[in-house]
Amino acid sequence: PYSRTGKYDYDLVVIGGGSGGLSCSKEAAQLGQKVAVLDYVEPSVKGTKWGLGGTCVNVGCIPKKLMHQAALLGTAVKDAKKYGWQISGPVSHDWATMAEAIQNHVRSLNWGHRVQLQDKKVKYLNIKGSLLDEHTVKGLTKAGKETILTAKNIVIATGGRPKYPTNIPGAMEHGITSDDIFWLKKSPGKTLVVGASYVALECAGFLTGIGLDTTVMVRSIALRGFDQQIAGLVTDYMETYGTKFAWKCAPKRVDKLSSGALQVTWTDTQTGSEHKDTYDSVLWAVGRAPETKALGLDKVGMQLNNETGKIVLGADESTSVPNIYAFGDIGEVGIINRCHTDIIRYSNLNIVPTTVFTPLEYGCVGLSEEEAEKRHGKDGIEVYHAFYKPLEFTVAERDASQCYIKVVCERAGDQRILGLHFTGPNAGEVTQGFAMGFQCGATYSHLLQTVGIHPTCAEEVVKINITKRSGLDATVTGC
């Protein structure tokens, strides 16, 4: 194939067909570049594999939110009776029905991505790419057939995969990760989730919500990197909701019993005592590792961070090799919709809003209270907060003691908002709206001048007026 450069097969070859790689390859093609995108899914340890679209589409955001929705519907059915819906007989959940419907939706997205690439004239190759030199990519098919592609520029967007602990006998043989949970044909049954990241808590939350006996094993703290007061509210709610927590515990080994059950042995790190219990499934959610091993990066002498294994990136996603770029989870910058690179480039990464889809959802944008205090000092920040009761919880007689809003501001001057935190229904939708204010330099007085939409949970944010400093009770009474 002849390229505009004349010298190479392609102007751009992208390795990785996830959020970053797809977005980049389509943008480049629209700018008139000749582009190929390589995507190949190495099956998980358990043999799970999937199609084009990367983690988000196949084993991340999309199936996660749909399973979270399944769990929310279970709660809604319980609420429905109080609202007068007459639901006869016991309500139970069928894993296979849910899984099949979600998996079919994911497959439709895989197909959609292929069609989009075709429409935009991007060549899609289902082969595993690695570098031979800075302009040459070797591709291997599943059958081991080799293809060589040359490119003027190369982008690496291979993301990451879940880690297994290396020092726990039986962990890999008998455990699963988030790469597998969404593609199970039958219910995981009684499950131990090891880890306390957002992935761990979201999975434990929806498993509890669809009626499974679920335990979360936490070594140290939950939701590291998030506001810790809010993390506590999220896990308190989950405990009330039925998720069991084994705090300050570390797994030692996993053994498969003759019955097929998995016996987990763990240590209580505070007392040093040892415990055992049996589970049907053990889900490891102990972090993710970048997919840098099999890329041949050493062949081009690419600079990696020794600790994380990630590619060291310059300001414009450039690597240490001039014509090779990388972005997303493979590099030292998180994944953001690439259309927003300019926003990211000219500001810090503190204004990326995010939501944790735990049974009580937690949305935030900006700094945690701890981080704001570190940067501005305890006397340099003003924290406004409120405990509120969502209207939908009232008739349903649901406990709202963890529904909370916190707005962290600079104390001086205009009281610029540094961080906003919200737990409650539809946290993602609420946070997305307020996130725009951060782009505009929102202040506390802007918030007060905003008219609330009644009766919503989000309006409680604009009504916020009690400071932590005042020590006053922050419980909001109804309308």
TrEMBL record:
Active site, UniProt feature: H454
Residues reported in the UniProt entry to bind FAD: K65, G129, D329
Residues covered by the Pyridine nucleotide-disulphide oxidoreductase dimerisation domain: 352-462
One Pfam family matching this protein: Pyr_redox_2
Key words of the record: Disulfide bond, FAD, Flavoprotein, NAD, NADP, Nucleotide-binding, Oxidoreductase, Redox-active center, Selenocysteine
Class of this enzyme: oxidoreductase
Domain FAD/NAD(P)-binding: 10-331
Residues binding NAD(+), per UniProt: G195, A196, S197, Y198, V199, A200, L201, E202, G287
Single GO MF descriptor: thioredoxin-disulfide reductase (NADPH) activity
Cofactor: binding comment: Binds 1 FAD per subunit.
Entry coiled-coil feature ranges: none
Enzyme Commission number(s) of this protein: 1.8.1.9
Cofactor requirement: FAD
Disulfide bonds: C56-C61
Family: Belongs to the class-I pyridine nucleotide-disulfide oxidoreductase family.
Record PANTHER family: GLUTATHIONE REDUCTASE, THIOREDOXIN-DISULFIDE REDUCTASE
The protein's name in its UniProt record: thioredoxin-disulfide reductase (NADPH)
Organism: Seriola lalandi dorsalis
Lineage: Eukaryota, Metazoa, Chordata, Craniata, Vertebrata
